[in-house]
Amino acid sequence: MLDRRFVADNIDLITENCCLRGASVDVARFAELDILRRQLQLDIDRLNQEAGRVSKSIGKVDPGERESLKAEGRRLREESSVLQSRQAEVLEES
User: Fold this and answer.
1) Cα atoms in the 13 Å half-sphere on the side-chain side of 41
2) Cβ(54)–Cβ(74) under 8 Å?
3) What is the pLDDT of residues 63-94, one digit of tens each?
4) Are 14 and 21 in contact (CB under 8 A)?
5) Torsion of CA 29, 5, 10, 27, to 10 degrees
6) Burial letters for 42-58: b for 16+ Cβ neighbours within 10 Å, e otherwise?
7) pLDDT tens digits, 27-61
8) In this structure, what DSSP letter does residue 61 have?
9) pTM, entire model
């Protein structure tokens, strides 16, 4: 099996090789999906980092402000979960 990064970096070479072998593979689509997968991972990591920051700050704020921070943390985790589901779909398609 070829490394995803190698395929993304060598689209022309992979396409040519598939044609020589008579294989029907949409290498360009694979590359698009790989870019999307990597972008989703960056977004997921950013959201998780932000949720962690919010979670750590909950104990340091006034009780009145805690509920808004808890809601923000829940929102960030839900958004991350949605992106993780989308990423799983992209991985399945690629």
Assistant:
1) 9
2) no
3) 888 999 999 999 999 999 999 999 999 999 87
4) no
5) -20
6) ebbeebeebbeebeeee
7) 888 889 999 999 999 999 999 999 999 999 988 88
8) S
9) 0.78
Domains of the chain are 4-93 (1.10.287)
Cα separations in angstroms, 84 against 25, 42, 81: 26, 11, 5
Tokens for 10, please give them.
Answer: 């060598």
Residue matched to tokens 């805690």: 66
Tokens 């990591």 sit at which residue?
45
Tokens of 6: 């190698």
Q: Is the pLDDT of residue 11 over 90?
A: no
- In one-letter notation, the amino acid at residue 48 is N
